[in-house]
Amino acid sequence: EIVLTQSPGTLSLSPGERATLSCRASQSVSSSYLAWYQQKPGQAPRLLIYHASTRATGIPDRFSGSGSGTDFTLTISRLEPEDFAVYCCQQYGSSPWTFGQGTKVEIK
Amino acid sequence: EVQLLESGGGLVQPGGSLRLPCAASGFTFSSHGMSWVRQAPGKGLEWVSAISGGGGSTDYADSVKGRFTISRDNSKNTLYLQMNSLRAEDTAVYYCTKDKYSGNGGLFDYWGQGTLVIVSS
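Structure tokens for the assembled complex are given below, as produced in the milestone run.
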């Protein structure tokens, strides 16, 4: 099973700032099958990025993903008020599909 | 518009059973794999089970293998999760998810709102 470790656990930033979130895998993720989700309190997760760097339908271009192998990054170029949430990475390269524990982006 | 609507959650005693249906609409149901993903209170996400578009291929997390059964009725556009021998650690919000692709790809592009299952005496 591939274990995904996200850092930092919490990121305290102000609107307009840049957010950089990390996701590290315990072994190489096949074909960069790595996704990022956003989850707000009381809501279901929403797919943001898949194949490590492809934005899902309707996702603003301030969200970008990069990386390969075992190291992946989600970048939010300029934080909007609605971006403060929990972000979770997930690998779908090999079963069982696994999720990271999440990074909370909070308002500073 | 894609919609996934779970139901069937509630309070059940340890050792008991529960069946969760998920009604799907807004897409060609039989053309997409489907999964159940759960989230224990205050915890992260855990994939539980997946089924291919035609229903011929299924997969389970080790934590539920032998206790849970995933199935689908493509004539009714409905996904199911039969949960038996429930344990306290199965307490979670259970999400129905649509796979972006037809097989068991594990990429969840749409999620339902979730249904809460509480296993407690």
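The longest strand of chain B covers residues 18-25. Chain B touches chain A at residues 44-47, 50, 59, 61-62, 95, 100, 104-114 (CB under 8 Å). Further analysis is deferred to the final report.
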